[in-house]
């Protein structure tokens, strides 16, 4: 058994897939989650995939005392992967204080406790939203950070600054910050996937639920952007590819494979796909039409962005391998298996 890793937000979409990959790699995992956007059935799904019943603590990361109890109970945690955060761009525009409180305090609590309990490293879940609307595409890690277009994006920028400032001030831990582009898909077993306790916040679940007839149509927010078809463009990456990058990153942090105490990596495919292209690809791949309507632009949306992932390819030895078609097939299989929406 390798080191013990704490995964915050571990019953969530990316957190659950990362937990599976950590367990498969031989790590011991403790999950912390408040279940605000997930449920305990995910723990059973992880067990059906890995054969391991992972330790779980229902804790909100903005509760410092609760987090400390977890670190006391599960001694010798060597690394933390921090996913726990609110992440909906539109909701953050409507509820900015809610986002700032949740996303900033949770990280500060973790960083305060790490030295006390001799936690050696943290892999932080960041986002391509930190780049705002970049002037040049694709974006690499040296692309200038633009003003955030939403409170959500701003919380990620601030969180990155908090980690950087704390390491500069002499913090004992190492950190890798992973800037995600747009995760889609599900585990090939269909035991875990993207399940929201509320209305979906991401494109693919909306497409799938519309194709199933759960929703009458999907809204495409804007068709007058400066893109090939007028709809927003994103870099869609399979969630399992994304999860594997976290395992590699944690190994790098704990095994001192870098002389730097802080590193940044973009995680994407290097290819942009528009919203309308994604709908069309789903229709061709699954063979079901998806009704949609053009709606007004959504406040906080970035027009277009995709990654230059060469740094992650070269330094981490990581590559996005799964196609959009494979991701859509896995997401469809996952949604078909669900009894509740």
TrEMBL record:
Keywords: Carbohydrate metabolism, Isomerase, NAD
Top class in the EC scheme: isomerase
Catalytic function, reaction form: UDP-alpha-D-glucose = UDP-alpha-D-galactose
Keyword NAD: yes
Pathway note: Carbohydrate metabolism; galactose metabolism
A GO cellular component entry from the record: cytosol
An example Gene Ontology molecular-function term: UDP-glucose 4-epimerase activity
Coiled coil location: none
Alphabetical list of Gene3D superfamilies matching this protein: NAD(P)-binding Rossmann-like Domain, UDP-galactose 4-epimerase, domain 1
UniProt record, GO biological process: galactose metabolic process
Cofactor(s) listed in the protein's UniProt record: NAD(+)
Record-linked InterPro entries: NAD(P)-bd_dom (IPR016040), NAD(P)-bd_dom_sf (IPR036291), UDP_G4E (IPR005886)
Domain NAD(P)-binding positions: 6-329
A Pfam match: GDP_Man_Dehyd
CDD domains in the record: UDP_G4E_1_SDR_e
Entry EC number(s): 5.1.3.2
Subunit structure: Homodimer.
Family note: Belongs to the NAD(P)-dependent epimerase/dehydratase family.
The protein's name: UDP-glucose 4-epimerase
Record organism: Azobacteroides pseudotrichonymphae genomovar. CFP2
